[in-house]
Design goal:
Elements lengths: L2 H6 L1 H10 L7 H8 L5 H26 L6 H6 L3 H13 L4 E5 L5 H8 L3 E6 L2 H13 L6 E5 L12 E4 L4 E2 L2 E2 L10 H8 L4 E6 L13 E7 L2 E9 L12 E6 L3 E4 L14 E5 L1 H5 L3 H8 L2 E2 L7 E3 L8 E11 L2 H11 L1 E8 L6 H8 L7 E10 L2 E9 L1
Parallel strand pairs: 1-2, 1-4, 2-3, 4-7, 8-10, 16-17
Antiparallel strand pairs: 5-6, 7-9, 8-9, 10-11, 12-14, 12-15, 13-14, 15-18, 17-18
Helix pairs in contact: 2-4, 6-7
Amino acid sequence: MNDLERLLSPEGRALLDEVRATDPADELAVATRLRRTHPADLVSAALGQARLRQRAVAKFGAEDAGRMFFTPNGVEQSTRASVAAYRARRFAALGVTSVADLCCGIGGDAIALARAGIRVLAVDRDPLTAATARANAEALGLADLIEVREADVTEVDTAGYDAVFVDPARRGGRGRIFDPEAYSPPLSWAVEAARQRPYAALKVAPGIPHEAVPGDAEAEWVSDGGDVKEAVLWFGTPRATAHPGGRVRATLLPGPHTLPGRGLPNPPVRPVGRYLYEPDGAVIRAHLVAEVADQVGGGLLDATIAYVTADALHATPYATAYEITDRLPFNVKKLKALLREREVGVLTVKKRGSAVEPEELRRKVLPKQHGPHAATVFLTRVAGAPTMLLGHPA
């Protein structure tokens, strides 16, 4: 009997409830006490699961994480619930009623799809992972919509489903895998599987080269709370068959706010204006900085740097705006003197095109007696010259 089977027993479930709120600092004392009345391996399994559930709260929320079952890899590699829910809504909006979720992991995406009213076949070849996905479907009351199958995804017949979703393994024994053909299964297999159904979505690493995106796919980069989480290749969507510039989009969560590509040329380089716009990471990954520059009537500080500058303030969810108060060549002593003059005690350091480490710069320029004001410094290049821009959020 493995740990999951032990935890699914009545004694295991009761023990999970008992250790639910255990502080890691108290684990040894709690384990010692519980081993007097419960098997030692069950106590260890329950405490380990409690730790995983606590870690999973950031991705799944306290309510779901407190009922679900996790493996260490499952917590690390599963899709954040907000991102999975957004993708499920996209599938539902396409009219999809059934999805074959290939490489389902512990079931995070299958759960989101089922909650969107979509019937799911969830497939994983690892026995423990598949069993965990099945336990999660049951724990959340979704077993009627989610069928979990332990199998090799390359041998699964998806003919009875409207769509496929494939989330290939992108980690190996040496860490992250960057070559899409080294995914498990390879991206080329996933693309062919996608083309067999009316609709499909393939989850890939955010750093996927644009030239690796198939010509019949729409590429979407997704960020959540400002952090880029993933890229997805969509097949069968209206934009997947649009003109080349329209086959990319950046989506920002919460919201969602979606910026579609329009195939705009690179923005011009122009002098520093009153405002600096820092595009969201998903916008940068999708190569849509030109669309943001067009929105705010701006240009680039440097042809190779994704900072937009403009003379006017425009509201946009796709970039954070800062008002620039000072521009000076890169010079630590001058920056230190300026911060002392402005009584700056809290300094945010942002950089693009600079090798300087933010923490090292803060240590060098902030006075020992911190002032009452805050500022942001951008270490970047302006028309090729190393430059420091000082400002604050607009």
